[in-house]
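ERR on first pass: missing label on line 2. Operator R.T. fixed the label and resubmitted. Corrected input:
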Amino acid sequence: MIKKIHAPLRAEELEDLRAGDSVLLTGVIYTGRDAAHKRLCALVAEGKPLPFALRNQVIYYAGPCPAKPGDPIGSCGPTTSYRMDAYAPTLCDLGLIGMIGKGQRSEAVVEAIRRNGGVYFAATGGAGALIATSVRSAEVIAFEDLGTEAIRRLEVESLPLIVAIDAHGGNLYEEGPARYRR
Amino acid sequence: MRELSVKRIEDTVYALFMSACCEIGEDVLSLLEKNLETEESPFGREVLRQLIENDRLAAERKMPICQDTGMAVIFMDVGQDVHLTGGDVNEAIENGVRRAYRDGCFRASVLTPLTRINTKDNTPAIVHTRIVPGEQVTLTAAPKGFGSENMSRLWMLTPSQGVEGVKNAIVETVRLAGGNPCPPVVVGVGIGGTAERAMQMAKHSLTRECGTPSDDPMLAEMEREMLERINKLGIGPQGLGGRTTALAVHIEQMPTHIAGLPVAVNMQCHAARHKTAVI
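pass 2 clean. output:
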């Protein structure tokens, strides 16, 4: 069964999510990847305000292609998540509740997810054209000079995701391959 | 001696990238479809279904298959009886890349490594040039995403490690990469030469039609065995578990030094994009 969830995420919605669940996410999420994470964490270190309040929000590790005329966004699949592992625990501890990307996370991120009751979703890497069809609007809200790496506020509808790491110790990147290893 | 305007090279580079970024080859598509039939994992099947749908949608809408439209890798074989006229051929190639990435709404993903300042037009391209007999120029455009590039490895093995060592290095590279390079992957392997030539062979092997065995029977057998071992790892599509970890393994080799056994493994995601033109 596919669960329908809404972003920003509410704690009670999260409670039921387990690694291996297929979900359709509707609502508001923010794109952010390598350069934006570096800047966010620099702001945190300097005690300065962030461009958006992290509480209950979801960050999507993505750097989209430019939109064609008339489209809200270009191709926008996930980028590989481990590069954000150095920054993610800091953001999780400040209220970030969900992350969308692809690939395994570090022990520190898994622990930050557990500690804060968060969730890590896998989107299908390389399905950028298909994922773009779930995006209704996109607006740069910070770090415009970073181009594709700027932070964008996306309105998405029925974005297909799989819960990869949950707050209860479930990790599909470990359990899935173990099931099929010969 | 045949004269060929560098403008032809520019226009060909342009057309090849416009096509390569949006239209996956039939070779890759048919392997995705074949593996969808045999994949045992429900997640694996769902991912393969999405990839096939994505690839069709991208071609239909002339949208990039993947937002990572890569660094612009080009293999150029120049016939020794060709005289390139009308300007700087390197500039012509850069112009072709620049125009394609702008007109195609492809992502500008290239920056200066230490300052991290974006060049904004996806140049420079990575150009591998060879002088060959004849009076034609063959151009292959292979946009290379970095999710998979980052998972590539160079192994400088010792001769004592032998064929088994080579095989283990290939499988270990894929195992360590896990879900990061966007499996199902194509595994490009270069054995022998020097450190940089081994990696160049690995990259070049990825421009072969996906799944076509090597002409060398020993390498063809190794490719088959490697594919079988890799697909027993269980990584599966997107690393969520399954049988389809790789679509193909391509191996090239050349002689190396008595003291060495270089093995380069260049990882390629399922968006194995490559288009060739002969002018």
